[in-house]
Amino acid sequence: MTKIVRYATRDQTTHVGVLDGTALRAMGTDSISNLLQLRVAEIRSLVESTTTSPAFDIGTVSLLPPVDGLTEVWASGVTYKRSRDARVEESVVQDVYDRVYGATRPELFFKSAAWRVVSDGSPVAIRIDSLLNVPEPELVLILNCHAEIVGYAVGNDMSSRSIEGENPLYLPQAKIYNGAFALSSGIRPAWELGGPAGLDRQLMIKMDVTRDGVGVWRGETTTGSFTRRFAELVEHLFRCYTLPDGALLSTGTGIVPGLDFTTLPGDVVSIEIPEVGTLMNCVTTAGGQTQSDGDLVPFANAKK
Ligand code: DO4
Ligand code: MG
User: Fold this and answer.
1) Distance between CA 22 and CA 59 in Å, rounded?
2) Measured between alpha carbons, how far is 133 from 161 in angstroms, rounded to an integer?
3) Which of 101, 132, 157 to mutate for ligand 1's pocket (most ligand atoms within 8 Å of CB)?
4) Given 58, 190, 213, 274, which is the most exposed site by the fewest CB atoms within 10 A?
5) How is the chain split into domains, by residue range?
6) Closest CA to 178 of 247, 130, 109
7) Which residue's CA is the nearest one to ligand 1's atom 7?
């Protein structure tokens, strides 16, 4: 399986390359944001032309999240029936979720700046002021500045259910905080999946949460239960909004535990979309510069 990856070498410089098994080949660009200024056809020919470049071993580099520069991370919500039902259950204001589930206009929200995105293997976080917290395993669309789907990655939209449940206007606080979005290490090129993912091309999404080495929650779904089309999310995001370095669009979760489950510090969250990739993160608490209780989540993706 081929992946477009971003990586740091021992001299701390970052690069973009193509990973095939354990063989890594450098591409003719240093940033994903530069790549996302190109058309899919141009990206594809760049990727395919690397097969003649010298390969080196993946063990000699550190993989980074495939997002950088001015590329923004957006997310959609209430795109699976399970998510609609879970929001209605958790919220004191229920009808907004029912209404958006059936509306033409989808829910879209800003999720993260590129530099805040957490790598595979680094900690994700729960807020110190939140009582009910969940990881949300999601298929992420990698979009170029022309609103084309370049590829797919695995994302975790960490969320506070208690804060959003108290009032939907608190959504940005429930969704945007230190350590709230993690991304798998590679982009699976769209042209390799043989058709647009979603209803027409069903992808399995699985999540496991372990605590002290013991499984405490497991769920799975497929993009066949996604109730919209990915193209309509993309069209709404770009309709009145310019994204010169492209965007990542996390497409919503179809896996939500019952209200009796909350993620705790120390949990390990593993997400797998077999044709796209894997993502594993342990959970910590997120304070901030002004908090003494709560770890300050390190931003491994910053200054790279
Ligand atoms: O309004 C809630 C956001 C829901 C969400 O993030 C999801 O469905 O994945
Ligand atoms: Mg979500």
Assistant:
1) 8
2) 6
3) 157
4) 213
5) 2-64, 72-297
6) 130
7) 77
| H or E element that contains 95 | helix 95-102
- Paired tokens of 231: 């193209």
Instruction: Report the distance separating Cα 243 and Cα 252, nearest Å.
Output: 20
Encoded tokens for 136 = 């949300």
**pTM for the structure as a whole:** 0.96
For residues 136-154, one letter each, b for 16 or more C-beta atoms within 10 angstroms of the residue's C-beta and e for the rest, the string is bbbbbbbbbbeebbbbbbb
252 sits in the region (left: phi over 0; alpha: psi -120 to 50; else beta) called left
How confident is the model over 6-52, as pLDDT tens digits? 999 999 899 999 999 989 999 989 999 999 999 999 999 999 999 88
Residues 123-167 have pLDDT tens digits of 999 999 999 999 999 999 999 999 999 999 999 999 999 999 999
194 pLDDT above the threshold of 90? no
Q: Which tokens sit at 96?
A: 């907004």
Is the CB of residue 68 below 6 angstroms from any atom belonging to ligand 1? no
The protein residue whose alpha carbon is closest to atom 6 in ligand 1 is 77
Closest CA to 123 of 7, 279, 250: 279
Into which CATH architecture does domain 72-297 fall? Alpha-Beta Complex (3.90)
